[in-house]
């Protein structure tokens, strides 16, 4: 939303997309994505702590969940996501 900080956007997006209320703990990294039409997005990624809420998929997702490493490795991911998370040392155990 116009005028919100990256941290505020993270908190809002997680509530909308997962039903969870979170606190941002620290910035873990930044990625750049190009959308169809050439618009470039800057995405700040944060480590967060869950404060409450009920885990559920938002209107743009079929399902949501918590994943261990074996389950994570079976997911279909956007290109470079696993490599990026590995570089940030954020892959699940």
Which descriptors apply to this entry?
2 strands, alpha+beta, 31% strand, 93 residues, two-stranded antiparallel sheet, Nucleoside Triphosphate Pyrophosphohydrolase
Précis, in short:
The model has no long low-confidence stretch (mean pLDDT 94). This protein has helices at 6-18, 69-73, 81-87; strands at 20-34, 40-53.
Can you give a write-up of this model?
This protein has 93 residues and is α+β, with helices and mostly antiparallel strands. It has a single domain, classed as Nucleoside Triphosphate Pyrophosphohydrolase, CATH 3.90.79. It has 3 helices and 2 strands; from the N terminus they run αββαα. Strands 1-2 form a two-stranded antiparallel ribbon. Strand 1 and strand 2 form a beta hairpin. It is globular.
Rg estimate, integer Å: 14 Å
What count of structural domains?
1
**What's the helical proportion of residues?**
25-40%
Approximate strand percentage: 25-35%
Q: Treating each run of at least 4 consecutive H or I residues as one helix, how many helices?
A: 3
Distance between the termini: 34 Å
């Amino acid at each position: 939303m116009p005028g919100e900080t990256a941290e505020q956007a993270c908190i809002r997006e997680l509530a909308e997309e997962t039903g969870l209320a979170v606190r941002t703990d620290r910035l873990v990294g930044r990625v750049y994505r190009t959308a169809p039409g050439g618009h470039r997005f800057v995405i700040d990624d944060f480590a967060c702590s869950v404060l409450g809420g009920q885990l559920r998929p938002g209107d743009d997702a079929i399902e949501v969940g918590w994943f261990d490493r074996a389950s994570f490795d079976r997911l279909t991911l956007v290109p470079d996501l696993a490599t990026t998370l590995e570089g940030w040392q954020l892959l699940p155990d």
